[in-house]
Amino acid sequence: MKLERIHHVAYRCKDAKETIEFYQKHLNMDFQLAIAEDHVPSTGAFDPYMHIFLDAGNGNVLAFFELPNQPEMGRDGNTPEWVQHIAFEVADMDALHEAKASLEAAGVEVLGPTDHTIFKSIYFFDPNGHRLELAANTAKPGMLAELKRVAPDMIEEWSKTKKAPKHAAWLHGEGEFDSIGD
Predict the structure, then answer these.
(1) Torsion sign over Cα 86, 92, 97, 98
(2) Nearest partner of 29 among 94, 97, 136, 126, judged by Cα
(3) 65 contacts 49 by C-beta, under 8 angstroms
(4) Alpha-carbon distance 116 to 89, whole Å?
(5) Cβ-based neighbours of 3, under 8 Å, separated by 6 or more
(6) What is the pLDDT of residues 39-52, one digit of tens each?
């Protein structure tokens, strides 16, 4: 089997219309389509829903379900807020700064830019409480290849120690990037 791409990623929302308006206004996403049913096609269960689809660029689709008959949506209290998020790529640092200024002008609280060495990001929340990230790539030549090269060793070490391996310490400001692994 060879996967072609992600068809769509679906999350829950509190209000489908409000969610569409937020993503259109702040992320310039095009509202593609809506599907509404009284019964879930895969299970047959009665559970009316509105399923909306937004164009996230390059064939990527972000979808949401509004489920009015289900208990109020929450989040996994055992997972820190910063872990579960949706990250979108922007063209460059100028686009990242423009997005931050636009979001803040609209009253959206924004964290960052945060420097991750290979990209810089800003973070904010949608009206449903989903954490969103906008990222601009900043990797120098060879950085991504080096991270890929050391990834198997890092996973092996992590699986044994559950402590952060130092194979790419340069990524976090410890030492300089050495492009020898290129």
Answers:
(1) negative
(2) 126
(3) yes
(4) 14
(5) none
(6) 999 999 999 999 99
Length of the chain: 182
Closest CA to 135 of 102, 83, 88: 88
Angle at the Cα of 130 (from 125 to 131), degrees rounded to 5? 55
What are the residues whose beta carbons fall under 8 Å from the beta carbon of 95, sequence distance 6 or more? Answer: 136
- How many CA within 13 A on the CB side of residue 74? 5
State the DSSP code for 172: G
Closest CA to 143 of 90, 91, 182, 172: 182
pLDDT tens-digit map of 95-147 = 999 999 999 999 999 999 999 999 999 999 999 999 999 999 999 999 999 99
According to the model, what pLDDT value does residue 182 have?
43
Radius of gyration of the chain (CA): 20
End-to-end CA distance of the chain: 30
What are the residues facing 25 on neighbouring strands?
Answer: none
- Per-residue pLDDT of 13-34, as tens digits, reads 999 999 999 999 999 999 999 9
Q: Which two tokens stand for residue 35?
A: 């599907």
What DSSP element (H or E) covers 153?
helix 143-161
| pLDDT band of 180, cuts 50, 70, 90 | low
State the Cα–Cα distance between residues 107 and 45, nearest whole angstrom: 40
